[in-house]
Design brief:
The protein is of the alpha+beta class.
Length: 346
Amino acid sequence: MDRVADLGHGLSGAAVVGAGWAGLAAAVTLAEQGVRVTVFEASRSLGGRARRVSIDGVDLDNGQHVLVGAYRETLRLMLKVGADPGALLLRLPFELRYADGFHLRAPRLPYPLNLLAALFGARKLTFSEALGATRFLISLRARNFRVLPDCSVTRLLDEHAQAGALRTRVWEPLCVSALNTPVERASAQIFVNVLRDGLTAAREASDLLIARTDLGRLFPEPAAEYVKARGGAILLGVPVRRVARVPGGFRLNDAEIFSCVVIACGPHQAGQLLVQLPALDEALSAINAFAYEPIVTCYLKYPESVSLPAPMLGFSGGIAQWVFDRGRLGGPKGLLAAVISASGAH
């Protein structure tokens, strides 16, 4: 799969297994190049782990998600399929606001002025902590954002003397939110990549993008329509259980042959297909070595008069890390979404 433009242009076209965001992004990219795409999805809904669900007639998401301005390719694909990010996403300057009064907010200034103003103007963050954060980021940039050898985020923060509210209200919550992994086990290198792309790039890269609509309308549904409008097909409720390499491509479910196949389902599902393709044994071994972490979104319905002081509010030391006011995001008033990320005592 060296060049997208060379894929699937024969009579057989290309197959994508999985209609989550990754699978639909692959399908849109192929369709954009004139490739006829068939998308197979085992469930009867689009979006995978970021999709719409309906409970008692109310449209919800199967998990609360936040995008950031650094997701340039996601935003490009949304525009490509006719989903306007400006209309569908609430764009906020980088902000961490907690119920206990801690508040850090980046003004709309060029980088690095926005980040400096956020750190040194943060409520409940001392001057020395803000200075320590600045030195930390300068040190990472001086090392070209490389952590050699890789270590845990806990060790990285210890080595750079990141403590106090700076650690418990900024770095550790950002790590858990982005990696969904406890800081003592999370990769420092991957966390540093997040800081590089999200905080130390262009100012708009750090913006928080919160959906004003359900996740299905945000990308999966318009992406499916885009693929179908270009001669493709979206097959819901059709699981792929067998894949075999045959002359001319790949045979799926002992039936149709495709010139190429993109496997874009979850790793626990992909392994069942990769085991049938000996050439991908290395990828299968990597998948089998994965460890998994839980994440839960709990919806709480209160009277319509109940609201939060901000669309997104942080909590420290309890069960939930972040609570979102869906009523401030185009949803039913009084509906809150509490997010509980990663394993731990909580």
